[in-house]
Amino acid sequence: MLSPRGLWNRHRRKVIIALGALGSGYVIYKLYDVHRTRVAELERQIEGAREVDELIKSQLQNHFQSIQRISDTATLPYAMHYLRSRIAEDLDLSDLTDKLRQPKGAPREKAELWERLKVLSFTRLTTSLWSMTMLYLYVRVLVNILGRHLYVDIARGSESSQIHHEVESFGRRCQKDFLATADFLSTYGINTLTMNMQSTANEVLKFKQLKDPFTMEKLHETIMQILQLFMNIDSPNYWISYLVPENAKMDTQMIALSSSGFEDPSVLMDASKLDQLMSETWAVLSSPEFRNIVELSLNKLVDVLVEEIDTQFKHSSSSSGAIPLVTLLPRVAQQALPLLEEPSINRFIQIIKNLPEVEVFYTILYSDMPPIL
């Protein structure tokens, strides 16, 4: 019989190999268990990040839809209604037409009245066309800039309840004030706008006589000349001052102070945020890309307006070709009011909205997100 020592000596190699295999298997199992735990943790983190991302997207959509509703149901309709009232009042032609209907009057006085009617008819049309187009495009800029900031703030706020509270506070306090800048055009800017548009129309029309024959091509060219000259008064971007006050920083600070109170500790934050929003708005409005969609929109609408005037004359008269300018004036003046109809039924706004270049511009504007730090 072999002694234990002899048995060990005889089977030592096998025992060592077996123990080594068992040890290696245990180590491999532990490594696998650690790896499996890490993978499970990583999957939980990925799932958590996905849930956070979905939450951010949901919050963003809700906020953006809320902003869009405010814009569609309050901001744009109110501004458009007031704009329509101001233009109808400031460029009322009824006194002129009443005087021209009177049988009495010196020939020179009548001629002056007709000249005024000529200039004011085109002024009324181009002022309505330009202000409606710019108001709609401007409000969309506000909505997209505000939506972009809300996206970033919501993403940051998901990591901190304190920041999230500030985001909600920003949404309540600043959103309305920022969108309210759309009222500047119809409240203040319209005065200088109308004066400069009338001056521009007078410059373009001064050598065009009432008896001059006008084709639709010449009418289109005349309207575009007025608009293009108007857009370049003083400086290429002077027209922005009709939409936004030049001292926007001071005005936004006063908005924050008046809406929140001088003793509110968040007043400076609101003023700073509004100032940032307005600075970005100025940058967008002064960009070549925005000017491009403005020009495209105006040109498209002039196409539509001239085509409609042409159709009206074809239906009401068998004559074709050139029409005396004096005969065109009532049609030109009448086209102003449909341009300023309620946004929900305004077909001219719909035409602008459907322009592919406009959609691309606002898609890029909204997606041009700053990094989320």
UniProtKB/TrEMBL annotation:
Transmembrane annotation, as ranges: none
A biological process term (GO) from this entry: protein import into peroxisome membrane
GO MF: protein-macromolecule adaptor activity
Family matches, as InterPro entries: Peroxin-3
Q: Superkingdom of this entry's organism?
A: Eukaryota
Q: Name one GO cellular component term.
A: peroxisomal membrane
What protein is this chain from? Answer: Peroxisome biogenesis protein 3-2
Organism whose genome encodes this protein = Platanthera zijinensis
